[in-house]
Design brief:
Blueprint (H helix, E strand, L loop, with lengths): L9 H22 L7 H10 L3 E2 H8 L3 H13 L3 E5 L7 E5 L1 H4 L2 H16 L4 H21 L8
Antiparallel strand pairs: 1-3, 2-3
């Protein structure tokens, strides 16, 4: 039961609770691979297209610059990737997977598959489709209007 102050924000409170539970479970699974939450998202982008710039990765995962920079530094220290200045502009950093980074492709795919099975147990295919469409619609609405000052409606 949500607190009384969240009475007029039931959906938002439910999203918060869902995100926290889901992220917590995912974080535990990632710890088993010696990864921090969010690092798998960067790796997944590099699995699809190795050799991206740090800025491209930043745009693709939707995290802030300092978070991505810190994650990439940790991942480089762990031997999962390399960062090198681009030939055309030494200020631009190009990110490449190492063999150790590429070796995480299957374990990360397995982790997401397992997390999905856990998340949807007891739901029908129709409920999953409806929830997924609704979640993306809410995300789009928040991204579109999330930075506006509330009008007091």
């Amino acid at each position: 039961m949500p607190p009384s102050t969240a009475r007029d924000g039931r959906l938002s409170y439910a999203i918060f609770q869902l995100a926290r539970a889901h992220r917590g479970h995912a974080a535990a699974m990632l710890r088993n691979m010696n990864l921090h939450p969010g690092q798998e998202l960067l790796l997944m982008q590099l699995f699809d297209r190795d050799g991206q710039t740090q800025s491209e990765l930043l745009d693709s995962v939707g995290l802030d610059h300092s978070t991505v920079s810190k994650a990439l530094r940790r991942m480089q220290d762990a031997g999962l990737l390399t960062r090198e200045p681009a030939e055309h502009d030494r200020r631009v950093m190009i990110v490449h997977l190492t063999d150790a980074g590429r070796a995480l492709r299957d374990p990360i795919a397995d982790m997401w598959r397992t997390l999905e099975k856990i998340s949807v147990q007891g739901l029908t295919a129709e409920q999953i489709d409806t929830f997924t469409r609704t979640a993306y619609a809410i995300k789009q609405s928040v991204n579109k209007r999330g930075h506006q000052v509330p009008s007091g409606e």
